[in-house]
Amino acid sequence: MGGRLRGKDITVRPREDLRRTLMRIDGRGYRAYRDIEGVYEFGAFSLAIDHAQGDPFASPSRVRVLVDVTKTGIPGELYGNRIRQIALRDYLTRVFDKRLKGCVKGRRGLGSSGLIRIDRGGQEVLDRTSVVLDRQTFEARFEVGLPAAGRTILGKECMEIFFNDVPRIVEGSLFEKSLSVSEMRAHIDTVEDQEFLRGQLDDLGFIAFVGDGAVLPRRSGVDDRPMKENAIPFRSPPELAVDVNLPNGGTWTGMGIPRGVTVIVGGGFHGKSTLLRAIERSVYNHLPGDGRERVVTHGGAVKIRAEDGRSVEKVNIEPFISLLPMDKDTRAFSTENASGSTSQAANIVEALEMGASVLLLDEDTSATNFMIRDQRMQTLVAKDKEPITPFVDKVRHVHRDLGVSTILVMGGSGDYFDVADTVIMMDTYQPGCVTTQAKEIAQKQKSQRMNEGGSTFGALTARKPLGSSFDPRRGKRDVKIDAKGVGTILFGQIAIDLGCLEQLVDVSQTRAIGQLIHCYGKAYLDHAATLREGLERVCDDLVEKGLDMLLPYKAGNLALPRVFEVAGAINRMRTLRIARIR
Description:
globular, 31 strands, alpha+beta, eight-stranded mixed β-sheet, Rossmann fold, six-stranded mixed β-sheet
């Protein structure tokens, strides 16, 4: 029969057509699965088989189910604005994932045969394409491994997937009658409260908020869920305690971190880096029960670290590094193999170039000679022999001249007491405000080191790349872009190492970044004066038009990245060439 789907004319066929096709191709070669591509009517929903894989060991087939919003029974108030839509779609994705794990038989042959998988994500609630709301239609996008024995089609096993497993999953995850409305509402309200508070931070004078009762430690370095046992709930120090009013959750009490320079101190293993880690991850919203759902950080916060060996292309690092041997120009500094200090300087300048509002640093992942130069070293190595201006002498200028705040973990140098506005001491995972004590110590035990930062931060330089930097071709393929885990993008002939972009949290963001770089180079670069302008335009369009604009087909495994991580990926491309700077 004929019909209209997603606003386009399309043939929607009876589901019995799918059954007959599967019976016809049963026992044939695997490529005959292409015959099942199309859209089928299943009563309560439509089933779209967009792409049938050509081999049982190839990437699984792309499948969608489409449900009219009015038939789901889900109250309209639960998706009444953009952030509530994102939260609802995230909730439905997680329920879909839970239902499929309870319904799916498992392996039904070789390779990916029998697999059903949806892009569930981790502890963060991201704008992703696993479930989308398009006009009046909910779309759940997932992958199916079409069953085969060797490369022979198992038609009956495939019928079991599409006529038994998928309907059970859909009925249990996309219709209000099978959902816990109270749990769904709590999920959405929690996410909306975090987003609301993030939007209020500027007016409140804060760069971050850590709510009382938050559980910050994680189970392990590879398990981002909250620690189960012996986790100490966060309790704000009285000097920094504030109340904030939320649209759904009433009043939260917690620690407000004010603008300026904040130093986090304390003994080893007392929670300094754990607090900073929670702050850096809370540029995103978190699930109810994650422990960090009451931690909210300004969206412009960028984690900075040293990154030995990265490439740098025409970055003005002169505010931190100048007078290099052999008169190497640091106003347009380039290298294929940056040191710890030059990479950290470049990382800061690149973040500022993209409009960062907060810098986050941890001494454990910083270059020591970039962070501090004590009085004894200054005496032995004169300033005219030392090209590096340490961060301690620039951090105040970053705030005063640029309006950019800093939060840094520092356990080894009290020289930062002189430049700090706020000092927080972690003691057994509990914070105390010790600003007064730190300032008294700084007065009594005056630092003998000389300030090397000058009177201003220095110039920031805007850059624009050359279009030839972005060539996604590989061999006979016009475009070859792929993600290998969270930390690597294969872009044409090159691999982009994103391992040091610590606020990149999901491989689906990495996939989107690869496609976004291609989109930027093809359609935005020539129409923008600077890298920042072009990337902000494409990211704004992604928010307005959706992630579907990145690909010619409907992908279910993309998640929205921040502009800072997109720029970070471009800056780490070893093919990057800058056309001009200003």
